[in-house]
Specification:
Elements (H helix, E strand, L loop, with lengths): L6 E10 L2 E11 L4 E5 L6 H9 L4 E10 L2 E2 L5 H6 L2 E4 L6 E5 H13 L5 H14 L10 E2 L5 H15 L3 E5 L7 H14 L5 E6 L12 E6 L2 E6 L2 H9 L2 H11 L1
Parallel strand pairs: 3-10, 3-11, 6-9, 9-10
Antiparallel strand pairs: 1-2, 1-4, 4-5, 7-8, 11-12
Helix pairs in contact: 3-5, 5-6
């Protein structure tokens, strides 16, 4: 694993349409760790996810994001993926006319920078489909076209399994999922978790953390992480809501 330093966010400030949303965010995720970022709506959770993946509408005004010591803020999204970053979106897009299988094979080729022989691809995919309790017929369907919420999320977890990133960012991956889909996605994430993968889960609700046990929980309020702790912090938020932390933060700031 090496002492690469992991995914390090330092004093990150980000504007969206000239309004500052992230106001000096600091975070370090090492490979093998599962971190959860929780926060009320409008706290900057999605801004963080989009900034990590290089969305052009999010303007970084200061700070850096280091992946194994390399500042990725200067890199385009595809290069960030090659360096080992993966983002599962809150609302994955449909791509009619592009089969799931072709899309994944192209993505693997781009990230691994090599042509993947058909036999090797098929074997790799079969193993991962089994792990995620998915059917081979999944590969011939158009990407996310007519997929249920749960299928879209499973498709993303399958991509994550095949691209083998060093760090995966799951942005509100539980949004709109029923309990069965939530369990299947969580089982997929748990099956992929291990010493080579750092996972950052961005979520509004504690329920996902009933299935995926984070090592660290951080609370994001008004563009900054205001509290960090273990998984007991998530249970505290579930019991008390966010207001107590918001009020506490406001009184410290004043």
């Amino acid at each position: 694993m090496g002492n690469s330093g992991g995914l390090v966010v330092r004093d990150l400030r980000v504007n969206v349409e000239d309004k500052e949303i992230l106001k000096g965010l600091n975070l370090t995720v090492k490979q093998g760790e599962i971190h959860a970022i929780m926060g009320p709506n409008g706290s900057g959770k999605s801004t963080l996810a989009n900034t990590l993946m290089g969305h052009p509408n999010y303007k970084v005004t200061s700070g850096e994001v280091l992946l194994d010591g390399h500042n990725i803020l200067e890199e385009k999204a595809d290069r960030r993926a090659q360096l080992g970053l993966f983002l599962a979106f809150q609302y994955p897009v449909s791509v009619p006319g592009v089969s799931m299988g072709n899309f994944i094979r192209m993505a693997m080729k781009s990230v691994q920078k090599r042509d993947i022989p058909a036999m090797e691809f098929r074997k790799t995919v079969q193993d991962q489909l089994k792990l995620l309790k998915m059917d081979m017929s999944f590969l011939s369907r158009y990407l996310n076209e007519g997929f249920s919420g749960g299928e879209k999320k499973r498709a993303e977890i399958l991509q994550m399994a095949l691209l083998k990133p060093k760090f995966a960012v799951l942005d509100e991956t539980d949004s709109g999922l029923d309990i069965d889909a939530l369990r299947i996605v969580s089982e997929g994430v748990n099956a992929l978790a291990g010493p080579d993968l750092g996972i950052l889960i961005i979520t509004h609700y504690q329920r996902l953390l009933n299935y995926i046990q984070p090592d660290f929980v951080h609370v994001l309020v008004d563009g900054r992480i205001v509290r960090s702790g273990g998984r007991e912090l998530a249970h505290e938020l579930e019991a008390k809501g966010y207001d107590w932390i918001i009020n506490e933060t406001a009184s410290v700031a004043s």
